Amino acid sequence: HCDLTPWEEPDIDEQTNRVRLSYSWNFERGDFNKKPGVHEESPLLDPNLKDTAHAARINKWNTETLEFKLIKDDTTAHKLAQYYLKNITKQLKRTSITTEVGIGDLDAGEVVKVTSPRFGWSEKEFVVTSIKRNQEQTTIEVKEYSASVYVFTDPGTGAETSGSQYSPYNIPAKPTMSSLAIVNEKMTDGTIQTRVDVVFVKPTTNVQLVALYFKPVGDPDTSFRPLDFTVDATRISALWKGVEAGNYNFRLVSISSAGIYSDIAIESGDKHYYGQPGAESFKTMTGDVVAPGTPTVADMNPIIGGVSFYITVSGGIPDDFSHFKVYRKIGIAAEELLDENWPSQLFSDTDRGSGYAARTYAAIAVDTSGNESAMSAWSASSVPLQVKNGDIEAESVTTEKLTAQQIIAKDFRSACNVGNGVVSGVMLTCAGFQAWNGSCRTVNISNTGNVEISGTIYACAGCFTGTIYACAGCFTGCLYSCVGNIGGWCVTNGCIHSASCGIILTATGIMQTGNFVTGNSGWKIDCIGNAEFNNVCARGSIRTAVFIKDEISVVGGHTMIRPAVTLDCFAGTYSAGTCTTIYSDSLSQFAVNDIVRVKDGLNDSWGRVTCIGCSQAYPTLDYMFVIMCSGTCGWTPTKGQAVVNYGCCCGCGGICMNGQAPYIDLYTHAGSPWAGTTSRVRIGNLNGWGTLGVTYGIAVGCPTGQYMTYDTVSGILNLKGAIIIGSSGIANFSDAGALATVNNLDGVPNGVYSAKTYLGSSLINNYSISNNLYGWPTCSGLVTVAKDGVNIRAHAISTNQCVQVIADNYTEIDPSHTYKFSMSLKKDIAGGTHYIGLYVYDCNCTLLNVWPLSTADGSCGTANNNFYFVAGVASAATWVDYEMYIMPSYIAAKDVPRGLNSQSHAKVPANAKYLKLRYLNWSNAAVTRVMHVYSPSLVNVDTSNQNAIYRGLSTTGALISRVVPACTAAPSGAGLYLGSDYMGYYDGGAWKTFMNNTGCFYLGGTSGGLQWNGSALTVCGTVCATSGCFTGSITSCLGTIGGWTIGSNYLHNITAGAGSIYLCSAGYTIFVGACTAAAILGYTNLGRMYYNGAYLNAVGFSVGLCGPSLPVAIGVATLGTVALPSGTTVAATCPFFYVGSGSTAYMQYYDGVLNVKGVICATSGTFTGAVCATSGTFTGTVCASAGTFTGTVCTAALTATCGTIGGWSITPTYMCGTGVYLYPAYGVYTTHAGSHAMHGKMYDCNT
User: Taking a C-beta distance cutoff of 8 angstroms, is the pair 238, 232 a contact?
Assistant: First the structure.
């Protein structure tokens, strides 16, 4: 039971029931790649981004725009959008519940069920947003809960309107993890350094860094934290920096140059995780498991009421040492833990309550990872010092019995005097106490309270308790305390420190905290006066000659103003091209691509920011990834150093003030501030700004470009650039008391708009440089297009008709000068034409005629007032560069330059004063074409430099007919010589090229690489004819052409072991085949063909060209008899052919007979004439309509069903003639004529 306050909802106008979703920002186009249509909720038409029921309930649509610039995938964007809308429309109601029943186990974020008949709720679910508890009651603030908020309905995916597929703002591909190994290395101090080595494959595009992430096994993916980053393409080696031991998953993430991360989640086909390609696996991290060395308790020193001792560690105190655990045993009692967190090696046991029994001690060393050493051996026993009861007794005084009377009165004032200034001893008088060393008084304690000690005070044991006041006076000599405490202060030789080492005072004049680390923690003041603190608050003034901000300092009165933060933590080591991580409490003044600088007394490093975010490892800090660009390598900045932001890579700046020069600079840098900065504005001493010397004034702009300066010495305002007067004119500027206009300017006629000088001596506005269209019509404006592989700014003129662009302003010219007009032009679509021209005016702005000058010969055409350099030229979709000239009226034809792609140059009359340039996008025939014009420039040039310098020419430009050399003798030195009958180049020892009046020449030296002696051309080297042909006859006694050897009677190209050809006129020999390199005939090699003038041989494999075996031979034995391999000798002059292998298998024809030794297979056809088969077998069908078999016929394989040979009929079972049958199985039978019955038996096989 509880009290339920009335529920409430937000105002109706704040109840969003429809969202319009845009995502995947295109940083190049400045727009979203995915955005909804005019009346749509998302680019995928997601119906779940509007709540129709809610809109009907409130009778209103409330639309909100959601823009997710860094989300690119459809699913994530729509998940967030659906959740955002449902979280509003499904969870509107809020109420408060008060109960007197204590609810001990309820916490914020849990879901409760509320039943209220008053509101019609039956176990309605609410989520707890806050709880307030007191002794009497509990108040719970709740918000309506609906599980449907977390239900996502996938709308599918859609196409993305993307920019460049290589954009750095695209989500990069995931890397592939090839291997992961854990390496434990033992350091010199005995500690263990654990390193995670990963080998991976980096995606080839859009990946700047690869990061290694880790999380404990079983934790969600949101627990992944970065371990290290690298720009390396194959490997990352990360230190396991103090993370606790356990089982961990590891994954890799790609990072683009714009700081866009690949997804860390594992999807089908991913290989960026440890264990791929199967299930994700883990590595067990042991961390630091090496304990410190075993301690030793030594130097036992009894003190009043206790014992002090010193603890050492075997192998020395490790770098990761944390504290000691100190144990004690008194007498036979059990051991006890005396101190479980003692930070130093010196320990004093001053527990007087433990008595004065002998005791021993032991210790355990503990490191920062919690590793404990073995317990030390128990120390030697030691007994605390004490003052015994019987130390002072009346009986111990040897002179007489002491009484209270004597001690208090006379005797103590006189009888105790031993030392008297002569004899060493002590003297006690009413004036005080003195100690004498002979005649030297070493101690004097007067009754006035003054104490003088001329020797040394030693405190061998015990401690000061209470307060010591020194009202006046001083200590002289040395004060020693071997061991002990003074009011909680430990006194050692040359050092006093607090028991916890919070404050340390040394005899060398240093005061510091025990935790002091330069640039990191604590504070320190040394004897020189150097001090280091964290924060200093001064209620008065701070005066200093040098001001230092952490480790980046500006000295000598030189101050730089830039954003900076203090380094809290640094991960990695500065080295070229590597990525490090900088942690600080706030990085709000830093952005991606900013240049940062970290510096100390010895090191100075620059880097570029690639990513900024909130640290998961250090929740209170921000982090940024920095890739080193320049500076010192191999060092690690420490906490407390300054990190200075120099601005982004694309150019940023700051303020620099020099109090000694003095001046103030507003500077920029071009992305490499370590290489220098550029002063844009200077106020003060201008020395060093451009070419200016020591003078005071102001300078604005670029010393090598456009600028304005004023100095107090000359009083001159110097302007290099343009003065642009707005449409309102010049105010408060008078000429003879009246408001001046441009018509009042001297030398400028009325009606002229302006006269202007532009950068680079151009007389017109080169808008590709100035990036503005002042003085030109706007048309389609300035656009960025590509020319020769780079982006440039060009004037765009888009039309499907005809457009003429005329400069707005008159440009003044001198008619006696020559001007060069240059520009570049292209159209986005080939077609149409273009024109480039000008209008020329006199001093009254009257249009004048202009003469066209031929670019070929300088001839002059007919004057007209509609002049074009280029007229009606067909436009292409490629860039065309132009150079055109405007020349004075007296120009000679020979001095007219050629120009570049110009049809004509312009010759202006002597009264020309102004001109307007123009260009036309023409004849487009209803096809929209954009003409781009780049870098128009008009400059004054020297006419005499337009053509080459004339030497040896007549007044008409013709070559003088005869050149008389200065000397006719043979040249003696290297040079190019022109003689009366020769010319050539002499290198000091020989002619390299030569030509004389007899027609002889040679190139390449006197022996001639190429030489003509009047009758023969000699070539020493290779003749390469890429085209053309030789005509006439070529005679060569011998030589080589392209591998062909020419002899007196032969031509051959022989390649050992490969194809060769040999032609010889002797014996009409032709050889084609494979050979080695000596004589052609008689070789045994691979296949070849040979013709010896009488017959042709074709050789198969491994047989010679002559001898008993000729695989193929055909011809006439005109050279004498020929012995064939078959054994047949061919008579002289007889034709023949032979094909076969020796005398065992062949076919040959000679002397009218065709001999076949082997198998004749006749599948069809007819034999005519005589067939002589000396041996062999017929297969198939043999039909011989006539002729005679001679020799032996073997019919073992005869398969013909019938046939006739010479009057005999042959069947498969018998052969018969007239009246006779021959049966191989039965014998020979005879019959009567005309009958097939067998009447007689000539021979019976059986009998």
Answer: no
